[in-house]
Amino acid sequence: MNEQLEHDLICNTGTAINRLKLEVKNLNEMILSYQTYTNNDFFVTQLKNLKQRMLTELKSIDKNFNEYVDYSELLKTQK
Questions:
Q1: CA 44 – CA 17 distance, rounded (Å)
Q2: Who's near 10: CB < 8 A, 6+ residues apart?
Q3: Fewest CB within 10 A of the end CB: N or C in the chain?
């Protein structure tokens, strides 16, 4: 793979992961707000479940991305 393309891919993927982390944080703030100002436990529970699914997927994506970056760096040192 072209080194510039690979660099751009890594940077863009890292940026996307950080944006997803921010969205999870925003979702958590929304959950806290709904818990404080509503009595709709069902809705709050659904938001919490969504947050948990997002965190699970995000951890998997983050782990795979970090493994790719490590592998990419290893290949560069072997050239």
A1: 25
A2: 68, 69, 72
A3: C
SS3 content of the chain, % helix, strand, coil (to 5): 90, 0, 10
Cβ neighbours of 1 (radius 10 Å): 9
The Cα 73–Cα 34 span in angstroms is: 44
Neighbours of 48 (CB within 10 A): 15
Are the CB atoms for 69 and 10 separated by under 8 Å? yes
Supply 61's token pair.
């994506």
* Mean pLDDT on 37-61: 91
* Predicted model pTM: 0.77
Q: Given the structure tokens 């890594």, which residue do they identify?
A: 10
